[in-house]
Amino acid sequence: MNASEINVHYFRMINDLGKHFPVLNPAFTFIAEYMVYILALSALLYWFTRTDENRMMVVCATVTFFLAELLGKAAGSLHFNQQPFAELPDVNQLVEKAVNNSFPSDHTILFFSFCMSYWLFKKKGRLLWMLLALCVGISRIWVGVHYPADVIVGALISIGSALAVYLVVPRLRAVHSILTLYERGERAVFPSKTKAKDL
């Protein structure tokens, strides 16, 4: 089999599981569509713990996402494929999605950008964050809106971006200066007598 046939083969393996185990479809639909709100809540919670490490982590995760998105757009300009449900017959499509270039997966880029950043900064719960990102990637195949290659490339771009950002951004004086100015303003509006514990 060539690369395209392998991509379709593994898409069918995962997507067809929804036909064989329909009881799992609501769970994968929720993960594919709504887990993004849990990710956003996690970033807010980490930010408002008001610890230096957590705030730097959220900054790095955000920078990673924007960098990975730029790289993803560049990758998308080199390769084009529509969503599986638009190209293949008999796809188990569980969510609505506009037809466009699905390469690479934006959802995967988002989750791996943040979850890989959490993994780099955190010792506690780091495995759970990466498992969450993996589940989101698989769910996008399960619900019929991405091929495995869309997810794999999105994950690799984000992992590489997160490593680069982790090595560079925390060492930039400008970033620390901006965070210091922000925190002064925050303390003026929301004074706190005690520093929150790190999560």
From TrEMBL:
UniProt xrefs under Gene3D superfamilies: Phosphatidic acid phosphatase type 2/haloperoxidase
Domain Phosphatidic acid phosphatase type 2/haloperoxidase: 61-166
Entry protein name: Undecaprenyl-diphosphatase
SMART domains, alphabetized: acidPPc (SM00014)
InterPro entries with a match to the protein in the record: PAP2/HPO, PAP2/HPO_sf, UPP_Pase
Organism of this sequence: Brevibacillus brevis (Bacillus brevis)
Keywords: Membrane, Transmembrane, Transmembrane helix
Taxonomic lineage of the native organism: Bacteria, Bacillati, Bacillota, Bacilli, Bacillales
Transmembrane regions: 27-49, 128-145, 151-169
Recorded superkingdom: Bacteria
Database matches in Pfam families: PAP2
